[in-house]
Every structure is written in structure tokens, then in C-alpha cells.
Amino acid sequence: MSDDVKLNVQSGSGENHPLAKLFMWTDTPGAKKNFIWISVAGLIITAALMVIYPNKHPAPWEVGPMKLIAYGVIGGFAYTFVVLSAKPLFNMLSRPENYYGEGDDHDV
Amino acid sequence: MFDLLPHINPAFAIIIAGILCIFSPSHFVRKALMIAAPIIAGIMIFQTYDPNDTLRGQFNFAGIDFTTVRIDRLSMIWGYVFCLAGLINGIFAFHEKCKISDSCALIYTGAGLGAVFAGDLITLFMFWELTAVSSVFLVWRGGPAAYAAGMRYLGWHVLSGVLLLAGAIMYGRYAGNYDFNNIGLDVPGGWIMLLGIGIKAGFPLLHTWIQDAYPKASVTGTVVLATFSTKMAIYALARGYAGTEILIYIGVIMTLFPVFFAVIENDLRKVLAYSLNNQLGFMVVGVGVGSAMALNGVAGQVVVHIIFKSLLFMSMGAVLHRIGTAKASELGGLFRSMPITAIMCLIGAASIAAFPLFAAFVTKSMIIASVFENHNYIVFLLLLFASAGVMEHSGIKVPFFAFFSHDSGRRVKEAPTNMLLAMGIAAAFCLVLAWPFGGYQMLFALMPEPEVAMEYIPYTGNHILTQLQLLFAAMFAFALLKKLGVYPDEKRAQILDIDYLWRKPGLAIAKWSDGMMTRYEAYQTRFVKNTAGKIGTRLYQVFSPAGSFSEDAPSGLAALMTAGILALALFLVYFIR
Q: Which range marks the domain in which residue A76 is found?
């Protein structure tokens, strides 16, 4: 760890920053539980509005109902694929932290 | 005196400031130089730019025509954003009391600026190498663990420069000059130069120095490093290889593979380093397409990417500065202590994910749209895939695991004021440059082809909806996978990349070869010593006064025989030759 990190690791007063209240709602069980519905609502609204604002230059796969939801399908599939690939990739590529024996990156 | 100013590369204003920093004992003088020098360079660019006279500082030396200053529309936008980044970096590093960091950061900034204003390949090479030599000290400032990474970093960058020079010489012999214009792959040296530039641009398999060195550098060093080298390489590609088709496919691979590494990486600065690689991929694709809109998109993406990636690195730097680690497994709930940094990180995340009203929404879509216009639908689809990946690693993972997620219980002070100010400036640019009413138009006015850029309207109902739908779908997938318990936990580990090949088997082979050479040299020394000893002993036994030749005949006869043999040898040499 470099000197500038060592010197500046500081403990606060133990209390929250006054501006932290801006985000406190994110820590409530309701917000955690209902976060998914915000994205569902966003998907429904964007798909519905696509009727009013159709793609003037559709890609070849934007046919039928895909005209309305193609980007959602691509985004959802891509995200899920990437996240689901994490477990086998991690098993295949992970090694102990000091595997190369050069010391670790910045750390506590 | 003042007539000469337009002929001086603005980079020298920053490089000289960097040299002065080495000798300045005063912290405040150094910091004043760090802030003032990029502003002065920016003013020099503004004063020097003349659309009718873009080539300056020309002279002939050793038979080579040098053009040390070229400020045209392509280089100008790079120049301005480098100056802005230099200024932001100076403010971010205001607290740091280190002569080496200050001077190297300035020299590195100046070298980057000098490279984009180079009008010939030799000048480009000199600034190219200066970026390597000056920036490696920023890596080494990361501490002992960064030493080996710094050496590898230096090796890659010197190799990049050597390839650039080799290609330039081949090209120069063919073309009869070293002018740095469109090069392409059909000329001698074209491929070699592309390889050299590709190292700095983070081409697949040549990319590992980014993820190796950047996360190991100091808090401020990483922010500085993330700005110049790679974007300088993108400039070199845009200048020399615009419309080279293979770059489309190289770029697509660059957008895709980092996504899979970023999702399993625990160190959030390394996640951002992979994210950097991914964003470079979009730019390389744009260069490969090569149309006016694509190159405008590349230039615009370089500008906003420098700003939002700096912002993200600064926010993680602030976390590292206060907490002492940037590992996701050790963080969480930091919005309680560092809410302003959290807001800045969220702005950076929204910008890189290309949410409407945030930076990349305008510029990235120009690149993707140019691919679509080319009817390259597979590439278009893969870029959409990569965009969802960006949302995963930089849009969600970095802010979520650092500032939200489970509460790690750490309570620290908010980032220092200078860091917050630097992040605030970057965040403001992220918003202003995407603002639909006069904001993005400022960026368009700086682009290489402003008339073409102004024809592109990013805020159409359809574009907003499609982009939002893609991002909402990614958010939905994140929430669902979290709910199902499928989203992977962050675990401490070393993730292997292709550099495993030279850091493990390659190193083992090198060590084995070294051991073998040592043994061989020892054997060789022993062999020579023994053989020479034996020959000497034998000669002594034959020719010495006590030797066998002297046993039955007087030494005078031996001398006569030796003289006779010498005479015979001379005779033969004289007549046979």
C-alpha cells in the first residue's frame, strides 16, 4: 500500500454524514423488495410508448411484437448471460489472491 | 518572440511545468503549476488554431522533415480534453505531497498532448515514448506491490514505441517522408505500426497492462494514467487507420471480453480498468467504420469517456483514500459516510451506461448508429450486448457494491474537498455535454466534422425509449437475479487473464533458462580451465628444459628444431598463399 493511502485512512465520528439521509430510503426493506417493480414499470412504459414512437429504421429482428420489446429482450438476455457466466468463469479463472507472489493490490 | 509562439507545441508548456516541479521545494508552487499549465496549454491551442494553417513548427533535421505542431479539427478536440483532464487531475491530486508524482503527471500529460499534435511519425514516436517513461513512475508510486507491474507496463510501452518506430522507418523509406496522415494496412510498416498502436489502445491479448498496472498505481496515479495513453492511441488510429475494416472486429471483441472479466473481478479499480477496455472497443469500432459520423462519435466518446472514467476512478480513488481498499467484498453502505462521493459515482455510472441526459447517451449512439448505417447488423447486435454489459459492471456493480449493498460498518470522513471539487467539475461536464438544449451542441461544434455532427439528433423519442428499455431490462435482470440469489457474491481472488501465460509459465521458462545458462556457463568455465590446464601441462612436459625434448638432446638442438619449423611455416605461407 502506498504512503498516501496509509496516511489518509481515517475513521469518522461513527455517525452518518448529514447528506446520507438522501439515500436512507435505499436501505429500507420496502425499497429492496420493490426495486424490481420500478424496472418492470419502466419496461412496460417504454414498450407502450414504442407504439407512439416506432423505430423508423428497424433492425431485421424488429418484427411483430419485437418491434416494441427488442431492446428490452437484448438487454435482459445480455445482462443475464453475463451474470450467469460469472460462476463457471470464477471457478475456472480464480486463484488465491497472492497467486503471483508479488504482494496484493491496495488493501486494508 | 511572439511570432514564434504558434510554432511551439502547446505540450511544452506542460512539460516545462513538469520539469520545474522537480526543482520546486514548495508544495503550493507545484500545485499551482499543475493547475496553471493545462490552462496555459489550452489557451495556446485556442490561439494557435487556424483552419487555413494547421501545420506549424516545421524544420529539417538530418534529412527528415519534422512537423512538430499540427492543430486541426481532429487533434484540437483531443488537445482540449487533455488540457481539461490535466486540470481536473491537478485539482484531484492537490493534497498529495510528492514531487515525483506532480512532475511525472505533468510530463505525462504534456507528452500525451504533444503526441496528438505531432505532424510526423518521428515526433509522434518521441512523445509516445515520453508517455511511457514518465507514466511508469505513477505506477511505481503504488508501492512495492506495484514494482513488477510497473516493469511489465514499461516493457509493453517500450515495445509499443519500438514497433511504431520500426513501422515508421519502413513507411518513411516507402513514402519518402514521415508525415503522419492516413497510413492504412497496404503500405510497408502499416501492420507493424498498427500493432504498436494496438498495444497502447488495449487490443485483445495486448490489453493486460491496463488491468495489471492501473489498479496498482497510487490513488491519484490511476486517475492520471487512465486518461492519456489509451486515448492517444485512439487518436493515432483515427488519424492513421480510419476506415480500416479489421478494426471493427477488433473493437467488437474489445467491447465484449472485458464484460466477462469485470463481472467476476473483486477489485473495483480493476473492474473500471476492464470497463476502460470495453469503452475503448466502442471507439475502435468507430474508427473501423471510418465514416464522418463514426469519427465524430469517436472524438465525442473520447471526450466524455475521459471525463466520466476519470470521475469513476476518482470516486473509487476517494474510497481507497479513506477506507484503504477498493475491494467490493470489503465495501458496502458507504453512502452513509461518503454521500457526495456516492452521488458523483452515480453520475459517472449513469454517464457510462448512457442514460438519457448523461454523457455517453449522445456520443456512443453515434458510433452504434454508424455501424447500423453500414448494415453491419451482427456487430450492431454485439454492441448492444456490450452496452448491457457496461450497465452491469460500471452502471450497477461499482456504485452498488461500494456505496450500497450490505453495510460494511465502515464510518469514515467524506473525501477531501479538493477531490470533491475535481469530481464535481467532471460530473458537471457529464451533465452539460449531454444536455439537450445547447449542451451537446457545444461538443458537436468541436468535432472533426461539425456540420455532419449537427445533423445527428440524439434526443428522438425512439432513441430515448430504446436506450431506456435496454437499461431497464438490465436493471430488471439485476433485481431478479439478486432476488433469486443467483447474483454472485464478491469474493477475494486473483482472476487470471492472458498475462497468466507470461507471469507463470513464461516466468518459469525464463527462470529455468536462466538456471540452465548459469549451469552451462559454470560448466564451460570449468571445461576451459581444465582443458587449458591440461594442454599447458602437456606442453610443459614436452618443451620445457625439463621436458621430454630436452632429455636426449641439448636445448640448443631444440631451439634449432623450433627455428626450422618456423622457417618451414613461413615458407609454406609465403608460397602457398
A: 16-93
Using 50, 70 and 90 to split pLDDT, how confident is the model at A4? very low
Residue % of chain B over a pLDDT of 90: 83
Closest residue of A to B495, CA-based?
Answer: A94
B505 and chain A in contact, CB less than 8 A: no
User: What's the half-sphere exposure (Cβ side, CA atoms, 13 Å) at B234?
Assistant: 33
pLDDT attached to residue B553? 61
Between CA B379 and CA B256 the distance in angstroms is 11
Q: How far away is chain B from the Cα of A64, in angstroms, using its nearest Cα?
A: 16
- Mean pLDDT, rounded, for A8-25: 75
Contact B221, B101 (CB under 8 A): yes
Domain count for chain A, please give it.
1
3-class secondary structure, B57: strand
* From A20, A53, A85, residue closest to B335, measured CB to CB: A20
C-alpha B359/C-alpha B312 separation (Å) is 13
- Whether A19 and B372 lie within 8 Å, measured CB to CB: no
CB A78 within 8 A of CB B389: yes
B58: helix, strand or coil: strand
| Rounded Cα–Cα distance for residues A10 and A8 (Å) | 6
d(CA B323, CA B317): 10
CB contact under 8 A, B412 and A11: yes
Task: Using an 8 Å CB-CB cutoff, list chain A residues near B260.
Answer: 82, 85, 89
Q: Give the integer Cα–Cα distance in Å for B9 and B57.
A: 8
Report chain B residues whose CB lies below 8 A from the CB of A63.
Answer: none
Burial of B322 (0-12, 13-18, 19+ CB in 10 A): buried
Contact list, A83 vs chain B (CB under 8 Å): 263, 392, 477-478, 481, 486-488
B387, B492, B494 member nearest A100 (Cβ):
B494
- Structural domain boundaries of chain B? 1-240, 242-492, 504-541, 544-577
Whether B44 has a pLDDT exceeding 80, the answer reads: yes
List the grid coordinates of B537: 601441462
Question: Which long-range contacts does A58-66 make (Cβ < 8 Å, 24+ apart)?
Answer: A59/B372, A59/B377, A59/B380, A59/B381, A60/B377, A61/B381
ipTM of this predicted complex?
Answer: 0.87
B180 in Cβ contact with B121 (< 8 Å): yes
Q: Is the pLDDT of residue B528 over 70?
A: yes
**Which residues of chain A are within 8 Å of residue B460 when distances are taken between CB atoms?**
53
If phi > 0 it is left, if psi is from -120 to 50 it is alpha, else beta; for residue B438 that is left
User: Are A36 and B479 in contact, with CB atoms under 8 Å apart?
Assistant: yes
Q: Are B430 and B307 in contact (CB under 8 A)?
A: yes
Q: Is residue A8 part of a domain?
A: no
Note whether B479 contacts A35, CB cutoff 8 Å. yes
Neighbours of B63 (CB within 10 A): 5
Beta carbons of B47 and B5 less than 8 angstroms apart: yes
Per-residue 3-state assignment (H helix, E strand, C coil) for B155-169: HHHHHHHHHHHHHHH
Residue A10 included in any domain? no
pLDDT in tens, B256-265: 999 999 999 9
Region of residue B204 (phi > 0: left; psi between -120 and 50: alpha; otherwise: beta): beta
